[in-house]
Structures are given as C-alpha cells and as structure tokens.
Amino acid sequence: MEEITLKQKIDSLYDEKHPKEKKKEYRLGGKGRLSKGKLKRGYIIVQKIDENKNVSFEKQQIDDSVFKTKDDNYHAVSKEEILFYKGKPMVIQPSIKLNPYQPTGDNEVFGQKYVQAKMLKDFIKKKGRGAGWIVWLLIIGAIIFGINYISKNGFNF
C-alpha cells in the first residue's frame, strides 16, 4: 500500500477549496454585437482602425457594396473582404484606406465607382411631402368656416 504524503494531502485539500480560475472569453463591446434582425437587414461589424492606431467597433449597413462610417467616410467592400467572428460578418477597416483589410491581397481600385454612386445617391435627396399638410389645414379651415357660417345664418344662403 502506498502511503499518501502530508504534502499530497495538503495539495488535494487546497485544490478542493480553491478551484482553478477559468479564462474569460474575449467579447466585443456593445457596439460590436449584432442581433439576428440586423443580420437579416445587411448589417456588419466594422472594426475601424484610426490614424493614431486606436481601434473602435461600429455596426454599419451595407448598401450597394458600400458602407458609411460614423465619421462620414464611405468604404467599398467585397465578399472576399468580409471575415466572420463567431458567425457574424466583420470587416477590418483602416480609416485612411478606401477598402477594408483583405487577407488574400490588396486591391484599392475596384470600389471607387461604388463609392461615387453611393455618395451621389446620398447627396440627391427625395422631395418631401411638405405641401400635403397645408392642404389639410385649408380643408379643416373651410369646414370650421362653414360650421360657423351655418350656425350664425342658418340654412339661408
């Protein structure tokens, strides 16, 4: 029979009392999380790298292969540049470049037409329906005038 030494007994008691800590898994901040609804609407996670080497996360919607960051810069994206983090689409975007980081190569020219088209689309705004409320005001005014006229004069025209 093997005898258990005093040190082994102390070590086993210590391990029972103090279990090993589990390493925490890295999680993106609140701005870097996407819900299922936003995934269906075409949103991606953008890891933006600024000129001063600060990194921030944003949720942006892809429209015509172009997305617009919060600092009003347009960037083109293709399917080769979209990476996946835990099943969610993600793009690593240096703020001074037109296109995101691409692990297979570096092509800066392909997205210029898309960016120009998106900028023109955002620049040309649709006319609002501003005159519609004026028409409704005129109709309501005419109704109020008619009610006052009838109540004072009766139905004698």
Question: How do you describe this structure in short?
Answer:
The protein has 157 residues and is of the alpha+beta class.
Description of the molecule:
With 157 residues, the chain is α+β, with helices and mostly antiparallel strands. The chain has a domain of 57 residues. It is 32% helix and 19% strand. The chain has four helices and six strands, in the order H-H-E-E-E-E-E-E-H-H. It has a four-stranded mixed sheet. A hairpin with a 5-residue loop joins strand 1 and strand 2. The longest helix is centred in the last third of the chain and has 22 residues. The chain is elongated. The N and C termini lie far apart (123 Å). The model has no long low-confidence stretch (mean pLDDT 82).
What is the quaternary state of this protein? single chain
The Cα radius of gyration reads 32 Å
Number of strand segments: 6
Instruction: Write the element-wise H/E pattern from the N-terminal end onward.
Output: HHEEEEEEHH
Distance between the termini: 123 Å
Describe the largest sheet.
4 strands, mixed
Which structural class is indicated by helix and strand composition?
alpha+beta
Number of helices: 4
Low-confidence regions: none
Q: Based on CA inertia axes, which overall geometry fits?
A: elongated
Please state how the strands of the largest beta sheet are arranged side by side.
Answer: 2-1-6-5
> Percent range for helical residues?
25-40%
- Round the mean pLDDT to the nearest integer and report it: 82
Strand content: 15-25%
